[in-house]
Write a structure and sequence with these properties.
This protein is an alpha/beta fold. The protein contains three helices and eight strands; from the N terminus they run E-H-E-H-E-E-E-E-E-H-E. It comes from Hibiscus trionum.
Length: 152
């Protein structure tokens, strides 16, 4: 099973959509998680169908910011556990014997004064110690100033 996680920084732009379609064609992921789509839920549903994904979970943007998008291919059995403006948490079935694992797509607050809340959210999601758990996303955190690229 392949996962694709991408901070698209705006899925409404034709260039971003072309890049996404090319990446999906090459990678052929079963699950995709996109952050900063900057789209409303109905726009994300249209984008998801155009990408060949019939099922998914969308968290609308707030104005021209944020927006989360999780889509899965048919045959990939998932159960939604929870979602917010900062995460989408699902349980993924792995095989016919019922083994499963957790996937959390995470988008940490870009505002420095709100990052503690993001980490507290992630800690609160850590509630299934016996299930393998993958957390992927943009945590909006850096350890060293040399890691910072672009923007402020």
């Amino acid at each position: 099973m392949k996962l694709l996680c991408w901070n698209v920084r705006g899925l409404g732009k034709p260039r971003a959509r072309r890049r996404l379609h090319a990446t999906l064609r090459d990678a052929k992921p079963s699950i995709i998680f996109l952050m900063e789509t900057k789209l409303q839920s109905n726009e994300m549903a249209t984008a998801r169908r155009r990408c060949g994904f019939l099922s998914g979970i969308d968290v609308s943007s707030r104005g021209r910011n944020w927006g989360l998008f999780l889509a899965r291919k048919d045959g990939c059995d998932v159960t939604l556990r929870s979602f917010s403006t900062h995460h989408i948490d699902i349980m993924v079935s792995r095989d016919t014997e019922g083994h499963c694992w957790r996937f959390t797509g995470f988008y940490g607050a870009p505002e420095e004064h709100l990052r503690k809340n993001s980490w507290n959210l992630l800690r609160s999601l850590d509630n299934c110690p016996n299930v393998p758990w993958v957390v992927i996303g943009d945590f909006n955190e850096i350890l060293l100033s040399t890691e910072k690229m672009g923007g402020r």
